[in-house]
Structures are given as structure tokens and as C-alpha cells.
Amino acid sequence: MNNAFSFSISSLRLDEHYNPSESTRITTNFANLARGEKRQQNLRNALTMINNRFNSLVTWDNPNSDRYTVELEIVSVGMKINASSQGSFPVIEILKTTVVDSETGQRIEGIVGNNFSSYVRDYDFSVVLPEFNQGKAEFSIPENYGVLHGNIFKAFVNSETYSQHFSKQPVICLSVSSKNVYKRTGHIHPVLGIEYQQDKPSLTDDYFGKMGLKVRYFMPANSVAPLAFYFHGDLLSDYSNFELISTISTMETFQKIYRPEIYNANSPAGLCYRPALNHQDHSLTVIEYDREERTRLATEQGKFTEEHFIKPNQTQLEQWSAQQAFS
């Protein structure tokens, strides 16, 4: 059964000429930017923001704050259920960063992960959870919630396919939860910045825990809110300064666009911080984004996953996922 499941990888450069592939979730950060009449301007502006933020954090031997450029590569992961099937289902999409030094011409490998896009996560959050809680007085989580998704991710990261392409474990960087409270710890990392701890685990923390990832929260220098870093291993020692800064610059830019109330607020988070999506004292970027459309499309994508991946392969997926606990 384990041998029947396999992964494949394809990649595409994310630049101002990027057009989403047919298998890309249209709600994912970079695909959403590449839509509409201002698609190219959106992409160009976002990439400029990423480069400026990177250079602002690399202050050594960079007097004009323009020495480095961050290149982004979209990594798409397909999962084939068995050898006889015609195609694979697009289970995961992540970003890989590369830093280019304009002074030396050196290309410095960054982090793989960063953004995390998953049709199966859409299915879990936009189909499974609402259906399970429909008509109930109190919100609850179904048994084995997120286990299949977590096993798919762990199987991919532990696969030969992954090791052939990437030398380090992925780091995923997301927004903090607007339902939790975060407090400063007193720990300050030279790159990641001020560390925060939350009062309780979020639903996303539990979900990513099933993917084998733990979380720490840091607010980098000149940021206004902490970011959530999901990782396996040791976040502080496994990655170089440039690797960490490439993730900060990329994902903080996306969050400023999609969560301006939190990440483009006009005052920074204090000692005790509760993010709020109704916070009015914030600034907007020049990049257009329709958050309501994104929520609606997430449900459509979840139902697409149910119809084309979960239901047709349910028995095989359940058997395979159960075996992963013993492999």
C-alpha cells in the first residue's frame, strides 16, 4: 500500500510575468495577486516590497540597502494514488526562496516552505468542520481531524522525492490567530526579533502539529506584529540568517497585503497583544485584494477536493493513512 502512493514535484518562477497553473488554488497568496487587470502591477509591487524588506534586515555590508534580491519559486507537489492512475492530485504548494547577491553574483539558497497551500486543508476547514458543527451549540473538532492531511505532508517531507530536491526541512510562516493572546517572553533573537508566547494553542497549531510541526512566534525588527513560524527540528540553529530573513521578508509582505489590520498597523504590538481583524488604525498597501472572495473560493476548493480526491479514493486513503502510524 505504501508503495502505491508516490509524489512528484514541478516548479515555476514567481515573478511579474507569473500566471497560475490550472492546478494552483486560486486563493493562495501568490495566485490571488496574479488576477485581474492589475495583476502584473500587483506582482511587481509585492516583489519590490519583499526585496526592500530583505535589504532592511541585512544591514551589514549593505550601505544603500539594495544589494540583495529575493527570487521565489513555486513548488507544486502532486500525489499519485497508484501506479495505474492517469494523473496526480495537487496536494501541496509551497515557496522556495533564493537570495541573489548583486555585488558578488552569488546565489544563496533560502528556505523551502514559507507559504503553504493545500486543497486538502480547504476540505478540512471549509467542508469537514462546518458540516460537523452544523446545528451544534458548541464548536468541536471531529475525531481524527487533520490526520490524513498531516500524514500526506509527513510522507512527502520524508520521501525520496523531497530529499532529491531539498536539503533542509520546510519552515511555514503564517499569521497569528485573532482568537488568541500573545505575550512577550523577554527573549530577543538577532534575526527573528522579539519572541512571543500565546495563551493557548490555536486550531491551526493543532492542525500543523499533525503535520509534525511545532510553532514559535517572533516579531522581527521594525515589524508591528509577531509571525507564526512552523518548523521541525530547531528553528534557531538549523537555518542561516539569510534563510530566515528570506522567509521573514516574503511572508511579512504577504501578510501586509492580506492582513493589513494586523501586519500593517500604525503601532506595534505591545507586551500583551491580541490581533484583531477589525482594527481600524492601519494602512493599506497599493496592492488590490478581495478577502471576501477568498473566503468563498476556499469553500468551492474544499468541495472540489471532496469530489475529485477524497470520495473517489476514500478507502485507499483511509487504509494508507492508518498505516502511516506504524511506518
Q: What value does the Rg take, in angstroms?
A: 20 Å
Order of helices and strands: EHHEEEHHHEEEHEEHHEHH
- Weakly predicted, low-confidence segments: none
What overall form do the CA principal axes indicate? globular
Oligomeric state of the chains in view: single chain
The secondary structure category is alpha+beta
Count of individual helical segments: 10
Helix content: 25-40%
In round numbers, the mean pLDDT is 90
How far do the termini sit from each other?
11 Å
As laid out across the biggest beta sheet, the strand order is 1-2-3-4-5-9-8-7-6-10
Question: What do these coordinates show?
Answer:
The chain is of the alpha+beta class. The chain is built from ten helices and ten strands. A ten-stranded mixed beta sheet has the order 1-2-3-4-5-9-8-7-6-10, with helices on both faces. A hairpin with a 7-residue loop joins β8 and β9 (227-231). The longest helix is centred in the last third of the chain and has 20 residues, at 291-310. The radius of gyration is 20 Å and the shape is globular. The protein starts with 5 loop residues before the first strand and ends with a helix. The model has no long low-confidence stretch (mean pLDDT 90).
